[in-house]
Design brief:
With 163 residues, this protein is α/β, with parallel strands linked by helices. It is built from seven helices and five strands; from the N terminus they run ββααβαβαβααα. Helix 3 links the parallel strand 3 and strand 4. Helix 1 runs parallel beside helix 3. The relative contact order is 0.13.
Length: 163
């Protein structure tokens, strides 16, 4: 399996059997670059890894990403959906900026999110790759669909409320 261009294998974060850790190459990754790197090539790579190995957890080190657009967040949600079908989970290793965005958009309910290698180690050694997050209710999903609000719009609205 060839690692997609722009991604790096993070052997130092593969702390247990069945864990594959990848990071985005570069010191600071723009949201546009992150959106592109989190796309189809990464999905194909992870799906192939799930088929050919005992992959159960994919760790994405996004600590060098300061912001993700709604497209990037949607791509992460798609990755999560596809991997869950194959019994795999995604753990996001993020900085405080990205963690705040994921919290504001309530996407922290869909992913296991850690801020450090210590937290990652604790999560992986706890015997569970990810706590089962509460899912969005059908009513919440219907409300989001009905309002046609994008994640970017939601983030801006919440930031304005926080003033």
């Amino acid at each position: 399996m060839m690692i997609p261009k722009g991604l790096t294998l993070r052997g130092d974060l593969q702390l247990a059997e069945g864990v594959l850790a990848l990071g985005l190459a570069g010191e600071r990754v723009s949201d546009i670059t992150a959106d592109q790197l989190l796309g189809d090539d990464l999905l194909a790579y992870l799906l192939e890894a799930a088929r050919e190995t005992s992959l159960r957890v994919a760790v994405l080190d996004l600590r060098n990403v300061r912001h993700l657009s709604s497209r990037g967040m949607g791509t992460l949600m798609g990755l999560q959906r596809q991997l869950r079908k194959r019994g795999c989970r995604i753990v996001l290793l993020v900085n405080s900026d990205l963690r705040s965005i994921l919290s504001v958009t309530r996407l922290d309910r869909l992913f296991a999110i850690v801020a450090s290698e210590v937290e990652l180690r604790a999560l992986l050694t706890s015997g569970t790759a990810e706590p089962e997050p509460p899912l969005f209710t059908r009513a919440e999903l219907a409300e989001l669909d009905a309002t046609s609000v994008t994640l970017d719009d939601a983030i801006r609205a919440i930031e304005q409320l926080r003033g």
